[in-house]
Amino acid sequence: MPAGQGGEPPEGVRLTPAEWGMWQAFRNGSTHDLRSRNPVQDDPVGQYRWGPERSVRGRIVALLLLDGPPAQPGRVSALKLSGVYITGTLDLSGGTVKPYVELTGCRFQNEVLLPECNFTTLRMVDCSIPRLEAARLTTEGDLHLPRCTVRAGIRLTDAHIGTDLLLHQLTVHQDRKGRSISADGMTVGQDLQAEMMESYGEMSLRGAQIGVSLSLRGSRLSNPYGRRALNAPQLTVERSLYMTAAGLSSTPIADSLGTTPPYGITPVQGTRIQHFVCEGGIRLDDGRIGDAVDFYQARFLMEPGQEVSLRRIQTPELRFLGERPRAGRVVLSGAKIVNLVDRSTSWPGPGGLAMAGFAYETLIPRGPFPLARRLEWVAAATPEYAPEPYEQLAAALRASGEDADARAVLLAKQRRRRETLPAAGKAWGYLQDWTVAYGYKPGRATLWMGVLWALGAFLFDRNPPAELRQGESPHWNAALYALDLLMPVIDLGQDNFWKPEGRFQWAASALIVLGWILATSVAAGASRLLRRS
Q1: Fewest CB atoms less than 10 Å from the CB: which of 299, 302, 486, 499?
Q2: Are residues 1 and 65 in contact, defined by beta-carbon separation less than 8 angstroms?
Q3: In sequence order, what DSSP letters do the residues of 416-463 get, joined into one string?
Q4: Which residues is 242 bridged to in the sheet?
Q5: What tens digit of pLDDT does each residue of 251-294 get?
Q6: What's the CA gap between 286 and 206, in Å, rounded?
Q7: What is the mean pLDDT of the chain?
Q8: Element spanning 65, H or E
Q9: Angstrom distance (rounded) from CA 372 to CA 412
Q10: Are the C-beta atoms of 62 and 107 separated by less than 8 Å?
Q11: What are phi and psi of 179, to 5 degrees?
Q12: Which keywords accompany this UniProt record (predicted)?
């Protein structure tokens, strides 16, 4: 139903005084403000009733946006409403909206229907909306929903936002399927900023693509009785994903404050910082994050069976600096990270961590993180022995020039492996450990050789053996004889000319056997070091 000539409403359409004021404000691009200036009465989520003097019909709003009157000469038409009650259903499904739209402090009677709709820019600020249905919505510019309250979920499946999606301090409750925000397949040209948002239900971003950064600083995602509070497998973020605290000047939040006036955010009154809190699991499997995933001061409140799942995620930097989860698991299986920035107090204990196939290049601990705690970190992730986490840790330490710590990690790996062996293997393992520490402490073999040499030299100096062939033996030297017995392969020309008897024959045989054991252990250890296992 097109508007009449001269900017009048179409024939047969009767406008109320509130709608007539909106009609004229649309033509000259001004704001139609119906607020009472009483904060209690103007609260869109409050209990105060808004009467006909503040009400406009959703179908009249749709008429203005889809086929409205021409602008006044020298003006640009725009729909700017403040403190207005929109009755009925605002249905713009499949339409193309060219005017600029900004609704501030408005209340909607029914759901807002925007599926397959095209906008330039859409801003709804501090509004009360029963539900927002906007699958396959397209905007050339921004979509803003800061400080809005949505009682039955938002659907943005396969939506395309040209620049920024702003959800600061949004409060959104779940729909009938338990989802607060359904945005699978959504693309955002620049930033998705959802700082200090409150989401009650599952926030689904499966396969979403964010052109710059995704910020959930200071937000609360709550779905304690569902499996996940955030379900975002195959998420692509070109720069960084922030699930951090908000409000500290030393945190990156300072970079984003005030970027979209006048919709900046502030911490909750009386607090200096507001944590990112997640009640329920997080799934970021197979995600591709261009710069970093940041969990600075994050709180994960999970039930048994819930997970912070980062399976096969790829990012240059993971900042795992949140509070230690008291339940649930952190899963890093198959993840590929360049820099792992972490704190010893952030990781869960035994049974709460899995990282099979987790690859990282550099460890950047924040605060004390001694090697003993790092080995506990690996042990927590491997309730059953697996060599890969130990080898990965040793490789990262060696790359940082900490060769001694790398050898200590590999020694811990061998000791852990020993517990999985049968009795004979365990016995051989203990022997290698006591003698040369599996070859990772070769100095210990030198000490044992020295002790055995001294004992052998003392024993045979007091009790020289008989000659095998009279007149052919070299000059007797107990020290050289004992050393010749201990050194396998190398012949010092002593043991073939003398014949110990009785218990001294047993002593000579013991030196030969112990020499072979020490030499074999040293060779095995040297081989491992050469392979840089």
Answers
A1: 499
A2: no
A3: HHHTTS-HHHHHHHHHHHHHHGGGT-HHHHHHHHHHHHHHHHHHHHHS
A4: 215, 294
A5: 443 343 333 444 445 555 555 789 999 999 999 999 999 999 99
A6: 10
A7: 85
A8: helix 58-67
A9: 10
A10: no
A11: -105, 135
A12: Membrane, Transmembrane, Transmembrane helix
Quote the CA–CA distance of 374 and 239 in Å, as a whole number: 29
Q: Are strands 498-499 and 466-467 parallel, antiparallel or unpaired?
A: antiparallel
In this prediction, residue 444 has a pLDDT band, given cuts at 50, 70 and 90, of low
Cα Rg of the chain, angstroms: 37
Query: What does the alpha-carbon distance between residue 513 and residue 506 come to, in Å, rounded to a whole number?
Result: 10
* Secondary structure class of 253 (helix, strand, coil): helix
Q: Is the peptide bond before 39 cis (omega within 30 degrees of 0)?
A: no
Q: H/E element holding 336?
A: strand 336-342
Task: Report the C-alpha gap between 120 and 102 in whole angstroms.
Answer: 11
Residue 289 DSSP class = E
* Sign of torsion over alpha carbons 8, 13, 17, 18: negative
Q: Confidence class of residue 426 from pLDDT cuts 50, 70 and 90?
A: confident
- By C-alpha distance, which of 395, 347, 337 is closest to 373? 347
Nearest to 433 by CA among 450, 416, 449: 416
Name the strand (E) or helix (H) holding 20: helix 17-28
Q: How many CA atoms lie within 13 A of 493 on its CB side?
A: 5
> Structure tokens of 32?
């139609």
Q: What angle do CA 522, 523, 528 make, to 5 degrees?
A: 95
Instruction: Kindly compute the dihedral angle of the four CA atoms of residues 39, 42, 43, 46, in this order, to the nearest 10 degrees.
Output: 110
Give the Cα separation of 46 and 43 in Å (integer): 5
In whole angstroms, give the CA distance from residue 129 to residue 143.
15
**In this model, does residue 365 exceed pLDDT 90?**
yes
d(CA 464, CA 177): 91
Amino acid symbol at 29: G
147: DSSP letter: T
> Is 439:528 a contact under the CB 8 Å cutoff?
yes
β-strands 353-354, 466-467 pairing: unpaired
Q: CA-to-CA distance for 389 and 218, rounded, in angstroms?
A: 33
d(CA 165, CA 183): 12
How many other CB atoms are there within 10 angstroms of residue 254's CB atom? 12
Q: 36 φ, ψ to 5°?
A: -90, -10
Query: CA triplet 261, 265, 268: central angle to 5 degrees?
Result: 155
First to last CA, the chain: 77
> Alpha helices of 273-386 — where are they, by DSSP H?
371-381
* CA distances (Å), origin 124, targets 157, 189, 423, 455: 19, 19, 71, 89
- Please give the Cα distance from 308 to 58 (Å, whole number): 42
Q: Which residue has the tokens 């984003």?
A: 256
CA geometry: angle at 197 spanning 138 and 78, to 5°? 40
* Packing angle, helices 387-399 and 371-381, rounded to 10: 150
